[in-house]
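Q&A log
Question type: sequence-to-structure
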Amino acid sequence: MELEHVNGENKGDILLFALSTCGWCKKTREHLEKLNLEYDYIYVDLTEGEERNEAVETLQKYNKDISFPTIVYNDKDIIIGYKPDEIDDLIKE
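Response status: OK
Response body:
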């Protein structure tokens, strides 16, 4: 699965599963960038074939409903939906 990388301050491993057409996903990305955080993301709707299968299977491990946006923080904390306050709380730890 090929991830896009955004440079910023490293506050842990942040992985965002998003859709290119999702307004809440866009707001989540804007919030991460406002905080100047380093993160990786994938627009699942822009993937095809085996890469899409891998993206969906990986997302499903963290979010059985496969909804967007989904943030995985340090491979253990999960934020589903646009929740800037939860993002802020997570990175302060």
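Response note: The CA atoms of residues 58 and 76 lie 13 Å apart.
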